[in-house]
Amino acid sequence: MADLQEGLPGTEIEDCLARLEAVLEALDHDNALAETISGLFKTEVIHRQGPWRGFEDVEFATLNWVWWFNHHRLLEPIGYIPPVEHEEAYWRKRADKPLLAPLK
Fold first, then answer.
1. How far is 28 from 99, CA to CA, in rounded Å?
2. Closest listed residue to residue 16, CA positions, set 58, 48, 50, 51
3. Is 52 a member of any domain?
4. Closest CA to 12 of 45, 41, 55, 51
5. How many domains does the chain have?
6. Backbone angle region of 61, left / alpha / beta, with phi > 0 → left and psi within -120 to 50 → alpha
7. Is 48 within a domain?
8. What pLDDT score does 1 carry?
9. What DSSP state is assigned to residue 43?
10. Residue 35 belongs to some domain of the structure
């Protein structure tokens, strides 16, 4: 992987990571859960899979990780199922309930 970084200016990689950091910070909104997810992402993707050739590589890796996280990662707080399954179960339960209470 080190050979991928040889011909690239360091500022391009730093710029990509800075833009990614700005996006992640904007999404965090000082939310502890979001900060935890952001930390997981940085550990599992940014630090383990780098060095990066450019912004598009980071963007593609981000999309893959988010899809994997939502469809395959088992989360203890929701019963060791992926978030997508939890959301589908939620909407199935809500299907027979009216969204709004009838007006009196």
1. 29
2. 58
3. yes
4. 55
5. 1
6. alpha
7. yes
8. 44
9. I
10. yes
Task: Give the tokens for residue 53.
Answer: 């050739």
C-alpha distances out from residue 54 to 5, 35, 58, 72, Å = 10, 24, 7, 27
- Domain membership flag for residue 69: yes
What is the domain range of residue 34?
Answer: 2-73
Give CA–CA dist 75/85, Å, rounded: 11
pLDDT tens, per residue, the chain with 104 residues: 444 455 556 677 777 777 778 777 766 555 677 778 888 888 999 889 888 898 899 999 999 999 999 999 998 989 999 999 999 999 898 887 776 666 66
Q: Is 103 exposed, middle or buried (0-12, 13-18, 19+ CB in 10 A)?
A: exposed
